[in-house]
Amino acid sequence: MFIPCDRGGGSAAPDFKGFTLLMPAVSVGNVGQLAIDLVISTLDMAKVGYFYTDCLVPMVGNNPYATAEENSMELSINAEVYSLPSKKLVVLQIRSPFIKNKYRPFCETLLTWVKSSKCARVVLLSSSHAYQRDDEQLLGTPLRYLLTPDLEKALGGRMKELNWKEMEKVAAYPGISNTDKVLHIPGGGITKLLFTESCSEGIQMAVLLKFCSEGDNIPDAFVLVNYLNEWLQLIKSEVSTSNNSTDPSSQWKIPSSWRLLFGNGLPPALF
Amino acid sequence: MATFFGEVVVAPSRAGLDEEEEAREETPEDREIRREIEKKRYRRRGRLRLELRSGGCAEELLVCSRFIVAIGRNAAAFLSSFILDSVCWEVVGVVKLWNEWCRTSSTTNVLPTDSFCLFYRLISDPTVLLCQCSCYVAEDQQFQWLEKVFGSMQKKGLQVTILSTCPVADYKTQESTLTLVSPFLKALKTKEFQEQVCCPLLEQPNIVRDLPAA
Hints:
The structure holds 2 protein chains of 2 kinds.
Chain A: E1 2-4, E2 20-24, H1 31-42, E3 46-51, E4 59-62, E5 75-77, E6 79-84, E7 89-94, H2 103-116, E8 121-129, E9 143-147, H3 149-155, H4 158-161, E10 170-171, E11 181-182, H5 191-201, E12 205-212, H6 218-232
Parallel strand pairs in A: 2-7, 2-8, 8-12
Antiparallel strand pairs in A: 1-3, 3-6, 4-5, 6-7, 9-12, 10-11
Chain B: H1 19-25, H2 28-45, E1 49-52, E2 62-71, H3 73-82, E3 89-96, H4 112-115, E4 116-122, E5 125-133, H5 139-151, E6 153-163, E7 207-209, H6 210-213
Parallel strand pairs in B: 2-5, 2-6
Antiparallel strand pairs in B: 1-3, 3-4, 4-5
């Protein structure tokens, strides 16, 4: 599945032992994917390989993180892997939807790769339909987390220290009391499948998700990536001297490919 | 999501349907239709097949140094009009496939353009291959198509050129597409391709998808 980039000179395949794998779920608003774009762009991560998979719709384009003419000509495809060894971080970016009936094969192959490359843990950025929230979820923060039992053990009370809210389970049959509570992540794509598989395979995985709707999801991406940053501290949140608050939003670098997200310029003849 | 008339519907999402949503929304009728379509795909063309005209053994590979693929009707028509002729080129193979987008309804009256991709070889240099693929290759057939086609080639310093078309309305640019002079050419190339490209490179945020991307 993972094909390392050919660096020439016979260099060895990258080693991800002990790394944190950060990846998105293709979910409502594509928030996870947008957040990952911000991480890769801001940390200027180097591409180390890609996934050769028949589970995603094929796509190709030029470098989405180009900053100048010189680096704009590298091809980019639907599932690529970036790495930052100084932070022991490896990032998978997924750029196209899943092909029908391919969710499960992808999850299985991905988790096999996670185990064989000996990543320490997986952090999955995702989102869920805001309109499906119940009355309690409508109040307070729209951000939630989930931890597999293995990661919960490893982290101890870290999430309590951060004052984060765990994703609630819902009744399997709404309206009927005394039914089992199940995990339900509508609009989350592969989130639930990957999470439940990780639980049963003993993989340390965290899911960070935001309730949102389709639309301009750039603000949602910033909120989610700041949420991630509270825990992983990927960038320093500088205290703003003017209003004495920590707002790291301005420190995330928007990639050049985020131009024209909502269409082209207007024809002058319209006016 | 509540609609104007007060009913609740599932909001469409760019992320596609969840697997469990797909399963839940499928009625027994939908399931039956889906099963029939899958059976039809398999019955009509089996799995995607690449048939070589030489009738050689299954392990025979086509030696290839240059491979030109035209995907879509416009690109295929370009090759037919300007490149292909019966003097210089010979048919060497065909990929047969079928999916729900093919317009024919019976196995006996299949139009070649609907479900065939034709492969030609330059008679004066048999390592130059050309493929016309004007049929629609569905998402879940694209990977198979690639594996079959490239798996049948013995690559000798292989250079691949893919010809395709996209609607101008899909092109993302600062100005309006109404003011653009069209048609126009754009290219994508791998870093291994060192020759001069005859047109500007495709700028971000434009992308290519489906079979040309694959």
